[in-house]
Prior knowledge:
Layout: H1 18-31, E1 36-39, H2 46-51, E2 55-58, H3 67-70, H4 80-91, H5 95-99, E3 102-106, H6 110-119, E4 125-128, H7 137-158, H8 164-186, H9 197-207, H10 212-231, E5 243-248, H11 257-264, E6 268-272, H12 292-301, H13 312-325, E7 329-335, H14 339-356, E8 360-365, H15 372-385
Helix pairs in contact: 7-12, 8-9, 8-10, 11-15, 13-14
Amino acid sequence: MNAPIPSLLDDEFENQxxxxxxxxYVQTRKKEGFPMAGIYCAYAPMELMYAMGITPVGLCxxxxxxxxxxxxxxxxxxxxxxxxxFGFIQEGTCPFYSMSDVVIAETTCDGKxxxxxxxxxxxxxxxxxxPQLADEPEALENxxxxxxxxxxxxxxETGRKASDADIENSIVWSNRxxxxxxxxxxxAAELPPAVSRREMNELLSFAALVSGQDVAPVLESVxxxxxxxxxxxxxxxxxxxxxxxxxxxxxxxxxxxxYRIIEETGAVIVALEACSGMKIFMGEMEENTEDPVRAIxxxxxxxxxxxMTPNQRRLTMLxxxxxxxxxxxxxxxxxxxxxxxxxxxxxxxxxxTAVHNVPFLKIESDYSDGDNERIRxxxxxxxEMIEVGYPA
Length: 392
């Protein structure tokens, strides 16, 4: 279509820019007296925070601007996400960190783990020891204990409490949110997709932080609009437009260059596999159990981050996403010095190409724009070779 497609979210958020939407939500909650917990990772147990009346806020981590300040303390050859996170705190330029009463951290990688030691001197920071052999029987016991310890920390630091009944109610609402998000993802599987990558990104960043109870009306409104789009034959691209699944490291801010470059080749991005993308909404927690915290722990251990070993769940999820969204190409985006995702990329490539016969492209980069043209050349070369109209 030649006419621009109205955004799904403009009406819901009064035409606010995506970053402003989240900031406005957090500021409103802060004024209403809700404590703030800064988080960096998908393993932070949101349902516990919702049940306690604590608002989770994603801390700044996706800009190259504060990296020089971080490199005065941290190694230059460290992951840019870690350096950016630390640089924002050093410079005092992350509004979400300033508003946070506490910080919740997890041992997902050695670099972040040591950075948490540094920032714990600035603000109350609770580090959760994440079991990384997720299939071992003691992993569930240990992670359940870690969440209970977090609950005690939050009670001491914020004065907020939650009963098991409160946590159970939070689980029910999160499950509803996840189901609604998966229904929205279904529209990216249309030919052509009825929801754009930009819209999915905006929904993901907002819904990841907001409780199911608060966000459900927004998601239901979005679904109604998507139904109308499909009925009107409105989509992004055509049924023959090359379709791309982006996997790998978290993507946001300056790292979104990978999305822009792919889309500038004329392709459409139909699935986002990173932990900043769809995967945290793919599962649900068991309801009506004797121990709702254990139910939360079990679900979070199923999130297939590359810190887990063996990480067969990631390959299983990739298969499900490839079968559903029918990409012509998988682009694996790796942040420099993110060794876990970099090493795992070899298994991902073998799985994607051998099991699904889908072309695979690994892109290793940082937050700077110095390699944009090199990335563009590589992406264009692969997209041009795609047999358009023949998905996996």
